[in-house]
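Please go through the sequence line and token line underneath and see whether the fold suits the sequence. See right below:
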Amino acid sequence: QQQQQHQQQQHTNHYRAGGGVADAAADSASGPRKNFIIAECEAEAKADAAKGFCEFSQALAVRLALRFEKRPADILSSMGQAGLPAAKDQRSTVKAIMRLCHPDKCKHPEAKRAMQIL
């Protein structure tokens, strides 16, 4: 049943772009569109770091979590592609990323929301 739900979610995600905006063009879970989204998040994170909200890696974790909120299956892989910490298993990876954007350590205005998404 979980596998069937996962497949249905992947099918739904196929037609979504970052941030939940519908995109009728062929949007896949990987490839050029995902790379474009990661590049956008990196640019936004650089701007956030320049404003003094937090470090770049923290801002990037927050931005990616927010952007992939509607596509949770893609969050960890996108963070790995962006160069954020990856551990030996999924649970350890999530913990490492959560440490980056925890509101007590990251002063980004959206840090709390990113934690909830993760």
Q: What stands out?
A: The radius of gyration is 14 Å. DSSP finds six helices and no strands in the chain. The longest helix spans residues 32-50. The helical segments are 2-13, 32-50, 56-67, 75-81, 90-100, 111-117.
